[in-house]
């Protein structure tokens, strides 16, 4: 073990051996990030760069942090969600890898905000954000540090929405890389990662049989698609609610029932919000739910379920299982809430499988390198991951899986680039 004199705020450093074992286990499923880390260790593309990462502190995030450090960065980590930190992983990052971490599971809002300030005290050149809290706080409270910022990377839909609003308001004066829109991120992380881990969280928290249940999925973006697909695969009857007519049609064509939340509230057994917006499930919906209906959220922030409205309609709240609370309503029914309305896949489970986070965090690592290589050349605003980077990550993933694909021959290339050839 290395010395632990570096600054940190974690729950218990004695948890480090368990954390290291789990970090190493996750690494078996993350070959792409491992290749990037090895290259970073040789080339040091982030040498002298101060990096702040505000992420879920999980075994997978640990490998991103290790890769960023290998690249030569002076990096620190804080949590992006009070219930997503894996305390043994946080301890191992400090003890075994020499990475300062300021996060522990269950930290309150005041502690979370203090950790954001600690992150900004690091005077970051790059911010790897997950929900845009660090960036927004810098813009609002640390204007004097903006000149030190090379840019930020963001991989959540919620964070991108906030960055777009900042750009419209004229306060996004630096480049931000939209990792969320990379094909190797949202096609896989959002769809397969969220789909599997959300249901994993529900099952761990409740131990109920999903087959035969009616599951209402609020939102049919990539996360909603994955959740609905996996719920159907476990035998559930799936209802989708949407505000976007195109996505609603897509859900219908995919074989799901589509209706308003007003109607779905009365027939659903389990409700999952994945919209990125607030109060998707509100007081009027709780009023008509079945007795014992289960509600949970898999969006980034804990605002999708209006828990204040639920509490106002309740005579009391009790913990019935780990991560599971029962609200006794004034009308005699009860509503079950998992994970305090926070990300159910991290509050009640371990988050996305390592194999999909391999590509997501490969994008994050490459985005950091991209920002440094193009320092001073990227305009303020939101930038996509370069297509060639996205394709390279996909290629590395296929190679690691032992899968080969075809390539165009010269004749096919000529045909694809010609406008004179026809039928």
Could you characterize the architecture of this molecule?
- InterPro entries: Adenosylhomocyst_ase-like_sf (IPR042172), Adenosylhomocysteinase-like (IPR000043), Ado_hCys_hydrolase_NAD-bd (IPR015878), NAD(P)-bd_dom_sf (IPR036291), S-Ado-L-homoCys_hydrolase_CS (IPR020082).
- Belongs to the adenosylhomocysteinase family.
- GO terms for molecular function: adenosylhomocysteinase activity.
- May play a key role in the regulation of the intracellular concentration of adenosylhomocysteine.
- One of its GO terms (cellular component) is cytosol.
- The chain is an alpha/beta fold and 423 residues long.
- It has two domains: 13-185 and 352-400, Rossmann fold (3-Layer(aba) Sandwich), CATH 3.40.50; 192-347, NAD(P)-binding Rossmann-like Domain (Rossmann fold), CATH 3.40.50.720.
- It has 17 helices and 15 strands.
- The chain has helices at 16-27, 31-43, 59-70, 87-95, 109-121, 133-141, 157-168, 183-206, 222-233, 245-253, 261-264, 283-288, 307-312, 344-347, 354-373, 387-400, 410-416; strands at 50-55, 74-79, 101-102, 126-129, 151-154, 175-178, 214-218, 237-241, 257-258, 270-273, 293-297, 314-321, 324-329, 334-338, 381-384.
- It has an eight-stranded mixed beta sheet. It has a seven-stranded parallel beta sheet with strand order 3-2-1-4-5-6-15, with helices on both faces.
- α1 (16-27) crosses α3, α2 (31-43) runs parallel beside α15 and α8 runs antiparallel to α15 (354-373).
- The chain is globular and about 65 Å long.
- The termini are far apart.
